[in-house]
Amino acid sequence: MSEFLISNDLITQCNEISAKSHEEDFEKLAILLDRKSLSISDLVSKASNYNVAIPSWGTGTGGTRFARYPGKGEPRDIFDKVDDCSVINQLSACTPSISIHIPWDRPKDPNKLKDYAQNRGMCFDAMNSNTFQDQVGQKHSYKYGSLSHTNLDTRNQAIELNIECIELGKILGSKALTVWIGDGSNFPGQSNFQKSFERYLDSTSKIYTNLPDDWLMFLEHKIYEPAFYSTVIQDWGSNYLAATELGNKAQCLVDLGHHAPTVNIEMIVSRLIQFKKLGGFHFNDSKYGDDDLDSGSINPYQLFLVFNELVQANLEDHNFKPAFMLDQSHNITDPIESLIISAIETQRAFIQAHIVDREALKVAQVENDALMASEILKNAFRTDVTPILEKARLNSNGPIDPLYCYRKSKYRSIVSEVRPIIAPGSSGIV
Ligand code: PSV
Ligand code: MN
Predict the structure, then answer these.
(1) Does ligand 1 have an atom closer than 6 angstroms to the CB of 180?
(2) Cα separation of 372 and 368, whole Å?
(3) What crossing angle do the helices spanning 386-395 and 8-35 adopt, rounded to 10°?
(4) 255 close to ligand 1 (CB < 6 Angstrom)
(5) Looking at 84-88, 195-199, 296-300, 424-428, which range is the least confident one?
(6) pLDDT score for 430
(7) Higher pLDDT, 2 or 58
(8) Residue 338 in this model has a pLDDT that exceeds 80
(9) Alpha-carbon separation of residue 224 from 170, 183, 188, 354, 382 (angstroms)
(10) Could you identify which of 110, 170, 218, 322 might form a hypothetical disulfide with 178, taking C-beta atoms 3.0 to 4.6 angstroms apart as the criterion?
């Protein structure tokens, strides 16, 4: 039995308040979906099977390049982060796994961490290696790069950290390594594009050799930041080339914030799916750059269009199951609230994508009926699937209204009594 941190009695009490309106809304939606020959209970079970991983680093206040304003009761270590993630999972009922970052979350005793997480009903998702920041006492600096650095010793140090992530992940039960590097240049001429890509491929192939057979290696591209002129894995094209060079276990990971503002991300998703190289996602939202805002908070239609591609691909090939993760920075909200709502927003887009009338869409496409095709998509997007998400949570002993229940629990003030206030002043994460 998992030891949850929000009492079941509180969830039951909260649910009593909204039970009647939930049932009424559910009935109404069932009728509406039935008219479209869709079964609401099928959609509820799809929502129940939906999972998105929580980034351990998202549980603390993120901050910007300029400042970080720590919140009350911030997690002190990976164990507190596991606690917060378990609250997110208990209240969203769709986030049972944690993606951790090394060395930020390096456990002294990985077996103890695994048991602790299991006890909270959590498991470990992809491991992440941080070679974009120097740590105290580190021998070689990553100021001028890591896996693509001109110096062999620096590259080897970065390779070693990735191998350490794999070894730790094996104990924790993880099955994937996500590699994102900050390597790049700030000035034209500063680096030789071709040679730095060659060095990156050489380093990643050494990591790849250490990957267990049942693991995947996710490569994450990013257009800029911290490098502002060029990055080594700048775009999905470079990512695809690298993943293809490495082999089948290497897959591309799409972080929604890592593209130029006007790029058609859903089309990139489709291309990578077509060539069997889409391995995973980092969901977030943005208006200008890698803003790391809450998923679905700025452009929910784009999120839906991405899921439209994912769901279509999964209907065509049931084995297609990319890894879903959130990757956000919470600067002005309680990270637990943001992560609950964001997880649910991705689940919402997933269910809305299942409402798309695929047969009608096919006909509209063949007949070049552009307006009808667009209406079919908008029709699904406009459908309020909230009662389906509520029912999926209810079926897992979760709350109908997670935000209300979280605030009623006073979890943040309770933990802030034992978690000391962190001094402000530093800048935030990348
Ligand atoms: C980089 O911006 C990134 O998206 C990568 O996934 C990192 O691992 C994460 O953010 C945390 O900084
Ligand atoms: Mn990311």
Answers:
(1) yes
(2) 9
(3) 140
(4) yes
(5) 424-428
(6) 63
(7) 58
(8) yes
(9) 32, 10, 14, 34, 34
(10) 218
SS3 content of the chain, % helix, strand, coil (to 5): 50, 10, 40
Provide the CATH number for the domain formed by 51-355 in this structure: 3.20.20.150
List phi, psi (to 5°) of 296.
75, 5
pLDDT tens-digit series, residues 302-321 = 999 999 999 999 999 999 99
Bridge-partner residues for 295, per DSSP?
A: none
Q: Higher model confidence: residue 67 or residue 382?
A: 382
Let me know: does 90 contact 398? Beta carbons within 8 Å: yes
**Nearest ligand by distance to the CA of 180:** 1
Answer whether residue 278 shows pLDDT above 90. yes
| C-alpha triplet 120, 122, 126: angle, nearest 5° | 150
* Partners of 178 in the β-ladder: 128, 218
Give the mutation target among 231, 327, 429 for probing the ligand 1 site: most ligand atoms within 8 A of CB: 327
Q: How confident is the model at residue 117 (pLDDT cuts 50, 70, 90)?
A: very high
Q: Please report, for the chain, the start and end positions of each structural domain, with discontinuous segments joined by +.
A: 51-355
Burial of 365-374, coded b for 16+ CB within 10 Å and e otherwise, reads: eeeeeeeebe
Q: Which helix (H) or strand (E) holds 342?
A: helix 335-355
Q: Which is the closest atom of ligand 1 to the Cα of 290?
A: 2
The pLDDT, as a whole number, for residue 63 is 85
Pairing of strands 184-185, 216-220: unpaired
Sign of the dihedral defined by the CA atoms of residues 389, 390, 394, 398, in that order: positive
CB of 328 shorter than 6 A to ligand 1: no
Q: Specify whether the CB–CB gap between 233 and 249 falls below 8 A.
A: no
**Atom in ligand 1 nearest the alpha carbon of residue 130:** 8
CA separation for the pair 146, 227 (Å, rounded) = 13
255 CA from centroid of ligand 2 (Å):
5
Q: What is the dihedral of CA 74, 79, 83, 84, to 10 degrees?
A: 40
pLDDT at 2: 81
129 CB within 6 A, ligand 1? no
SS3 state at 278: strand
Question: Quick one: pLDDT at residue 66?
Answer: 86
